[in-house]
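Reviewers of the previous submission asked for a worked example of the structure-prediction workflow described in the proposal, so we include one complete record here. The input consisted solely of the amino acid sequence. No template or homolog information was supplied to the procedure at any stage.
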Amino acid sequence: MTMDSANPGDSTKPQDSAKPEPKGLGGWLILVGIGVILGPLRMLGTAWEGFSPLYIEGAWSYLTIPGSAGYNSFIGQLLLGEIIANSLIILASLYLAYLYLGRKALFPRVYITILIASILIIVVDAIISTLVLPQQYHFEEVSQGELIRSVVSAAIWIPYMIHSRRVKNTFTRERHRKELPLLGSVSVATVLVLTLLLVTDTPKTRIPAEITRAEINPAEIVPPQLEQVLKETAENLNRRLPLMIDDDTELYSAIGMEGTMTYLYTVVNHPAEEIDKALFIANMKPQLVDNFCNSEGMVEFRNLNVKVKYSYSGKWGANIATIDVSRQDCLA
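From that input alone, the workflow returned the following structure tokens.
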């Protein structure tokens, strides 16, 4: 039994004139419709999880401003390209839902185009990310599963769209002449707005908002010698990073500025939403305090009254927690 009489060889067999041709949003088209309707919502959720730190956490400045510990001269263009590509795919998916519900003749072609474009975007993004971020980007963790799902989906549904009689009999309505120009205008406007939001996002800090020095009294004056010590310490450490601290934790950057040393970690095996923040802090803070107060490597920081921040992010970049430790914790 084939999907909605998708086998082209059926055309050579005698047809029962009493049996109507398959038509309407039924059969296997129900599964297609579920994916088409839920697709934009899933894409929006994924895009929000991946790109919201650029705004909420100030990561855009951290990654794109020269002098920042996370600066890479190509990463701004990479992120912008990803945002534009994802925005266009989401808009195309919304248009696809409209074509599906309206039973437009253009639906099968647009559906096939989006399936192929999604695969190409994943492959191109993976290649560029590997070239730009060879140490931080891991294809098997970030893109492999998504690519497999996209290829399997295309292998199933592209032949179905081409051969199914139900598809041919259902999507017969011609589109309105103004539909594509309107979609093009909306797409261009959306991309321009997103681009402007990014390039004009210039917060004062050059590092994510969670690790700014908000607790320090603005009246404090950090001696220039201390600033130099912190800067050199961070630069020397960054030359050896990234570094796996244990099976789950990677130290990928250090920032020394304004009397504070900040260590940036990634919990490589778990996204942030899988981790209980309160429990994470309760477990980590005593260990970090003990290390700061008793480790010989922290003697200079204790003597200079340097504040230390430990900022942890999940495997997709969302912040888990930032834990502050200072000399006062050793007196508690």
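The chain has two domains: 3-199, 210-331. We consider this example representative of the routine output the project will generate in years two and three.
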